[in-house]
Design a protein that fits this description.
Helices cover 46% and strands 17% of the residues. It has 169 residues and is α+β, with helices and mostly antiparallel strands. Helix 1 packs across helix 4. The longest helix has 22 residues. The chain starts with 6 loop residues before the first strand and ends with a helix.
Length: 169
């Protein structure tokens, strides 16, 4: 169970703050089930109500600064996911985004970044599906890392590049 004020990743919504833990907000007679009231951090004006014991959606604590720095240190070693079959590749991307697994998000970002560069060098257009998954993976990873590292989301990519460059000297 998460605590009020805690930042979590919530499937379909990204980083959210637990604002309240309450009785069922819809069925006031249901005193058995507790609910989280969540506010997406980067999606202002939204409120999410979800049962505390909801097993259908993935909810987890966001990484802390130590975990974020550890992940950045591992980025050069994280393998890309080269899959020719488009449907299989897209399924892998969808699953990584659905689970918010940071390692998998890095894999997708690395893969699609290299794939994008390769297609541009060949004079080909970047596939809209690749663009979509790249943006979504970056959004999820960078929003979580920005909070873990206490830096603006827009600065995360540059921060990661600088850290990798520093560690490779």
């Amino acid at each position: 169970m998460f605590d009020v004020g805690e930042l979590i990743m919530c499937e379909g919504h990204g980083v959210c703050r637990v604002t309240t833990i309450t009785d069922n907000p819809i069925d006031k007679l249901d005193k058995k089930r507790k609910y989280y009231i969540l506010e997406p951090v980067f999606e202002k004006g939204s409120t999410i109500y979800t049962p505390v014991d909801n097993e259908k959606i993935i909810m987890r604590k966001i990484m802390d600064e130590k975990d974020a720095k550890k992940l950045i240190g591992k980025i050069p070693e994280i393998e890309t996911v080269w899959i020719k079959e488009e449907k299989t590749r897209e399924q892998i991307y969808k699953e990584a985004i659905r689970t918010y697994d940071c390692h998998s998000l890095v894999q997708i970002i690395k893969t699609l970044y290299l794939r994008k560069q390769d297609r541009v060098q060949q004079g080909k257009k970047v596939l809209s599906s690749d663009e979509h998954y790249l943006k979504r993976a970056e959004e999820l990873l960078y929003s979580e890392m920005s909070l873990a590292l206490s830096i603006p989301k827009e600065s995360v990519e540059e921060y990661i590049a600088e850290e990798i460059h520093k560690n490779n000297k």
